[in-house]
Amino acid sequence: MAGADANDEDAGPEMIGENDPRVKKLQELAWSLQSVTNRPGNRLPEDAKRAAYRITTRAIALCTNAEYVEVEDFVKRAKSLTKEIEDKKKDMQELEESIKTDLSGKCFRSTGNGGYTVGPRST
Fold first, then answer.
1. Which of 26, 33, 53, 72 lies 20 to 30 angstroms, CA to CA, from 96?
2. CA quadruple 70, 76, 82, 88: dihedral positive or negative?
3. How many CB atoms lie within 10 A of CB 75?
4. Max CA pair span of the chain
């Protein structure tokens, strides 16, 4: 019995599991940001998509390797990533709305030499 107690103490730090609800929550939040940036027909610039992708990649990597991360470390990193993802998601939605507003009332117009340019829509 005494040997079993000694082995329990030497088991090491507590690790978080892959099926932990905190892991799933962070993973779903990262996926929701990717859904905003990867939506077909969105008008977001590529550099904005890449910036969002960098954040989601870090979050998904943390979730994938959760079983090798201590609980305290995961919670601390997940908290900062959650805030970062939520802020980026809000920024992406605002950017998409501003781009839509900027493009409203515009259409493709012929340049006369076989090309097209964005110009005001005629009434």
1. 26
2. negative
3. 12
4. 90
- Three-state secondary structure readout of the chain: CHHHHHHHHCCCCCECCCCCHHHHHHHHHHHHHHHHHHCCCCCCCHHHHHHHHHHHHHHHHHHHCHHHCEHHHHHHHHHHHHHHHHHHHHHHHHHHHHHHHHHCCEEEEECCCCCEEEEECCC
- pLDDT tens digits, one per residue of 72-115: 999 999 999 999 999 999 999 999 898 888 777 777 777 888 88
Place of tokens 């079993």: 4
